[in-house]
Write the structure tokens for this entry.
Amino acid sequence: MESDVILIRTFCYGSQLVGGALTQKAAAADVSSQRLGKSLLLFSAQLSHCRTVLRLFDDLSMLAYSHSYGLGASEEDAGVRWISVLTNVADQLYYPCEHIAWAADAELIKVRSDKWWLFSTVLWGTSLLLGILRSFRVLLLLRKKLKKHQRGEGGSRRSDLHRQTQAEMLSILSSMADLSNAVHWMPPGFLWAGRFPSWLVGLLGTTSSLIGLIQLNTSSSELLDSTMLSSQSGGDAN
């Protein structure tokens, strides 16, 4: 299911990237390119609406995750723990704000959607910023661990630490791309809000989506390797 959601996100931003580039660069006389670009932008908008509707069902899973994480008693570092708790709070509040905004646009409730879209964007940006801070903190801790293992043995442990470092760096890159878009969708006058062309929004979103696919594929491969290793160990024991 998660892979399907990331694929939809990738196609959404990819369509916006290509559609925005075509509509901006195509000459006025090039009617076919202009038409294709507009069609891709409309397709991207529909996929974005689809993603909003799909998120209507994410509250309970997010609540279950927040409950299982709690105050992060399993975390070794207090900084990572409290940043993660604040991130969970921002994520949990994001969903109802977006749901209210969506319901207002669909005329299911009689409220103005503008402020609720703003609340959801602020919470999304806050979550992304906290995620970046968390990744930087984790990188600092990983660097200390790498220095410790370089003085001793443990080649496989160093390899694991290097993989974790690469994963955190990808997370930072992904979150920074999304945070750039979050600022773009803020009210005019705030930093670079409203200044990005459609193709740039699509490029940033596509970048973060492709990183998400890479991370999902990596985690799936590691899970498969772990499962195979456990099976082999069980077979040896039997």
Summary: The chain is about 80% helix and 0% strand.
